[in-house]
Hints:
mainly beta, two-stranded antiparallel ribbon
Amino acid sequence: FTSIDQCANRALITPVAANEMILDSKLAPKEAGAGLPAAIPEGMRALSVAVNDVIGVAGFVTPGTVVDVLVTGKLVGPNHSDEDTITRTILENIRVLAAGQKIEQDREGKPQTVPVITLLVTPEDAARLAMASTQGKIQLALRNTIDTKRVEPASVLEANLFSGKSAPATPAPKKIVVKSAPPAPPSPYTIEVITGNKRESKSFPNQ
C-alpha cells in the first residue's frame, strides 16, 4: 500500500507487530466488517464449543493454534447396547479462531482459562461438530501448527479398552515328524539241488 487511505476501514485478519509491513493478504475486504467475521474465509464457518480446563488442554488452546477434535459417545443400532461406548477422531487439523472473546494470541503464549473455543470449519464439519458436542463428549487434542498430516487414527471401543482380556497367544507351530517306513527285507535266494534223478529247490534268506 502507498497510503493509509488504502487500508482504512479494513480489519486485520492476522496479528501484526508494530512497524510491520501491511500486506493485502493480512486485511479483510472493505465490505467484510470488523472483528471475528472478517477473519472467516469465504466458504468456511466459525463454530464455538464449550470447554473446560481438560477439554481446552489446560488453557493452551489459544487463537492461532491447531487441534484435533475427538468425541466419545454411545454406539447406536440394533446390534449395540447402552454399554457400547466409542471414542473416535472426527476432525483433524482444525484452526482455533478465538478463545473466549479473544481473537489474538497472548504475546507471551501464557495459558488462559476460557469457557468457549471457536473453531474454523467447513459447513459439513460444522454439522458434525455440533452433533458431537450435543450428543457426546468432545475433547481437543493440541497439535503442532506445522504438522498438517492427516492421520485418521482408528476408533477405540470401551469394550476392548477395559475388557481386561489380553490378546490370545499365538500357538506354537506343531512339530511334524515324518517317520520313514522300515526297509523291505531282502528277497531270499533260491538254489536248485539235483541229487541223482531227484531235483528240488531250496530257499535261503539273503543277509
